[in-house]
Design brief:
InterPro entries: Biofilm_reg_signaling, dCache_1, EAL_dom, EAL_sf, GGDEF_dom, Nucleotide_cyclase, PAC, PAS. It catalyses: 3',3'-c-di-GMP + H2O = 5'-phosphoguanylyl(3'->5')guanosine + H(+). The chain is of the alpha+beta class.
Amino acid sequence: MPAANVLVKYNRDKKNERYVYASFRRQRRNVYFLYIITSFLLCSLFGWFLYEQHQQEMRSAKSYSAARASTIVEWAKSVFSQSNQVLLSISELIDIQGMPDEETAMSVAVELSDRHRYAPLIQEISLLDSQGNVLVSSGNSSYQGRDLSNTDFFTALSSNQQQEIVTPLYWSDEDQAYFLHHALRLDDQEGNFTGVALVRIAPQVFVDTINRMQVQDGESIALIDPTLRLIARISQLGGRTQTGTQLVDPITQGILDNGQSPWSNVMGSFLDHRKRLFWLQRVDNFPIWVVAGMEMEQLLAEWRQRAAILLGMLIAIVLLGGWGVRHYVKRLKLELLLQKRLDEREQARAQAQAGEAYLQALIHSIQDLIFVFNTQDQITYMHVLHKEMMLEGEESLIGKHYTEIFPDALAKRFDAVFEQVRWYRQAVTIEYPLNVRRGELFFQAVVSPLENTDGSFSGTLLVARDITEAKQNEVELNIAAAAFQAHLGIIITDAHGLILKANPMFTLITGYTEEEVIGHDPHMFSSEQQGASFYRHLWRSLKKHGRWEGEVWNQRKNGEAFPGWVAVSSITNADDQLTHYVATVIDISERKSAEQEIHQLAFYDSLTGLANRRLFMDRLEVALKEVIRYRSYGALLFIDIDHFKQINDVYGHPLGDRLLKCVASQLAQQLRESDTLACLGGDEFAVLVPSLNADPVKAAQLAERIAHKLMTVIRRTSALINHSINISASIGITLLSDSNIDQEGYLQQADMALSQAKVKGRDTLCFFDPAIQAALLTSIHLERELRQALALKQWQLYYQPQVNVDGKTTGVEALLRWQHPERGLVSPGEFIPLLESTGLISEVGEWVLEKACYQLARWAQYPEFCHLTVSVNISPLQFQDADFVTRIKAIFERTKAPLQRLKLEVTESLFVEARDNARDKMLELKALGVRFSLDDFGTGYSSLMYLTQLPLDQLKIDQSFVQRVLTSSANAAIVESTIVLAESLGLDVIAEGVETQAQKAWLLEHGCHAYQGDLSGRPVPVDALEEQLVSVQH
């Protein structure tokens, strides 16, 4: 505590004593005030709690009364529901039989009695005529004939004011009793009033029901009509109230008149005048109200008992609090006396402490560490303001020698210092590191001698100061000086941006010397490749965050622009005022070149320099988003150079590469900057036109125009590469729209369109057709099933007879059939082309040949079949296999078939390429006895040259010619020429597809003596064929 505060505290006079007494009176007043407020709050809380308890009791009573009333209401509704059913049944009876006359009155009375038996809550059922007279009644014969025309309910029903009425209590003079009437108007089919169906209900029904109910203490239940006449009532107090008693209560009458239901209130009973909580609820729309009451005296009995207990507790608490306050005030008086004695004692001590307080205040303002050592170099006094600067584990160093505190090496240094101070009586400064609680710190200590008044040595004073921050700043300055000479280019500017210093690396990067740049603005290095907006953003970021870094294109002294990675930082002083800017520059020219090369390799074709598939897919993704956003159509074009493989094979790859480069260059010149031209591999190019037109027809027209233009420039490339070859291209086009098709889907569409263009004969274009896609999907599904059929051997061989002029079967052709497990027999025209395109034809063809050979070997054992030849079709793909002959020979070896009766049917396409290889294979097989027939002659690459060179035995005239010999002179001439050609070459000839006798006669007339077709027999399984042959022979 500062010395000034100590004097103020303890040097009190009489005025301070008066202040103490005033404080006592203030505390006493506060205690009394707190007691009064607390008592008031307790009383308020008590009152609020009792009020809430009272409200809870009232809510519970209301809920209970409402439940009781609802029970009676539901029961009363059942009474009127029963009477309503009776009235409706009477109405239906009258609708059927009509109003009773003297003859039918008895039967109607019986009907009413029957209905009365099933309605025990009803006293009487009657039928009134249109004049109000009782025609028939269910029970009381005296009731019959009464005139009720003057009753309110009859008047209302007969005047058509209401269709159905339930009356309040009605006094009957004849019966001297009250009743409730439930009446229904009766009309004939024309809607004319014919009478009234009437049900009389005795109030005793309600009286009996209520009397059977158990009621609690203080509870009462009553039923009243709209005029406040009592129908029935029960009370826990006992006693019964006469039915029809007229009650008088204006408030309740007003509630009934307003139709308010349910309604609740606390008021005096209009019978026994006891104060009750009443719950009033109407029985549906009927003129009866249920009144459930609960006597307030009984209802609040428990609440009053609890209130009395709580009030007693409150009084006890208030009295106890008053006693506590009185005791506390007495204690305050005692404390006042004790404080007075203490003040007097402290006044004496204050004087002694004042001097020490001044000294401690001075010492505590010193941040340095202070140690006093005696002549034995032991610490007698220490001042350490911050405990974290103490040695770890040392709380007090008093009495310890410095060698016990410092490490050995530091203690030895202090040995020399203390010795020097003791002998030379001069201050010595020493710097040293020391591990304390905060960590390793650097200290600067001044060690000074202490002397007695007589000048003798009395000890040593050590004052140590933490110089860690200064040491760190020194290290950082050394590091900064070293960094300034590092591989980074560095410049330092003043607050206005003028260069103050540049390091050697900066001068090496830019070509400027340090003298040439000092005093200039860094804008002198600008290459002008980045606009003013770029530098505005740079300065805004620098001012906001104090730092900016990014890529900047600068200019060297020789004018060469180069990319650099620049980091700029602002330097501020202790007052947060800007003083300097420091910028570092790294020359990233080589890295940018490498990135550009990597980007070129990653996204561009190495030969043509066009975008590759990866970049094209990215552009396509962006184009599809634009198509969706702008609701316009784009186009995707696939371009394929026709016969490019042959050009490569014939003229060599250098010419092919030159051609691709030339085509790429020419195509790129025809396209817009927004279009994308890509090389997808080999001779496949793709063009992406992202936006054509919002109208699909116009978009298609524009896409077609672009395709024609591209095809034209491709045709011109032969001149550009100085070569005479004809160059053309096929183009497939698909339109891009906002459909749900993804990138791969559009690529497939364009590829299918390109394939279709090639099918059409090349050098043409074709738009994508969904039918082609459907056919492709069907083909894929069929291929999957074909592979399964191959694994499960779902094949069958059918045989079609080949006959001579006499109609005798000389041989058969083995025809493959696919027995599909679900579709049955599948047409060969549907799956044979797919077998060839998938390469499965070789495996299936071998299976056919082997089965046919087994069949031929079997027939050789039977005289009736041994003369038959078997023709088997051989696919060109199968025939061109390198080991075809080897595999065929293996089949012959396994089957032991008579090969002289085996004919292999081949087509003309087999001899277009590698004719000599095909001839060698045929000669090798012919040497074994196999015969060859040329199938579909005249439909392909017919040439007299290869006919004379190949070892053929038979020509087979295609059915397309045979079926039109009678209708087409051209076809007739072709067939006639084929027959003559075969005869001249010494070959047999057979016509397939012969379906009529006229066709057979024409062929016979022109020299053809062998036939195959539906006229001689359709293809059938082997069992059916054998049956046919056997039946013909017999």
